[in-house]
Amino acid sequence: MRLGVNIDHVAVLREARQVNDPDIIQALYVACASGADQITIHLREDRRHIQDADVKSIMALSKLPVNLECSINRDILNIVSRVKPHRATLVPEKRQEVTTEGGLDVFTYEDDVAYAIEQLHDSIIPVSLFVDPTIEAMDKSKELGAEMVELHTGLFANLFAMLNTSLPHSNHSVKELEHPRYMLSSMLENSIEQIKLSAIHADKIGLEVAAGHGLNYHNVHEMMKIKEIIELNIGQSIIARSVFSGLSDAIKEMKRLTTRI
What we know:
This protein is an alpha/beta fold and 261 residues long. 48% of the residues lie in helices and 15% in strands. The longest helix is centred in the last third of the chain and has 24 residues, at 181-204.
């Protein structure tokens, strides 16, 4: 299992005070030295965390492959085409969202996604699509020419947290998932099964399979059971753990949990 460490949240802390502390490049070096297999960053249209200068510096200095997440906005695509990351992952974006909510709608925006993939391929950049775990989305991703899919695990993560943590008793309870425990348990099982079936189908039709969103030290074991998933991209939980343990130890612990024996 490859571990992509998303360092966006280091930049979130930096931008909160608009100073160069914590330093995103220091985070890059720690990740490279602590067992990460890939560096993942997201250049958002509103530049709320990662900046254009960060992308250029990380591309120049990273000893690891860089997975650059981006929207299908054409200005953003032009930047990605110029910097030439090892992979581009196309994701949906809404200005008002706190974090990415759901997978890229490859049906409604089929033409725009096809254009983005063609432009990136012209720049010799492999493409992954961040999509919801459905058979239909796997088939459409293959049809559009992507080399890889990243399964959106947000629903799974929310269900797991509502069932197994104190989240329902906090200010951040997921209102639409405030159901009896027996119902949450059934929904969680269905979510895991949908991820598994989607991964199997994607692998069968020739797509590489990654997963990400909301994965943490408590729920990642469920993804480890699905052999078709070869990569996980994890950020917020690692950076949150690092507040208490340090970034190096946080990455090493996640790497331990995502190592198949």
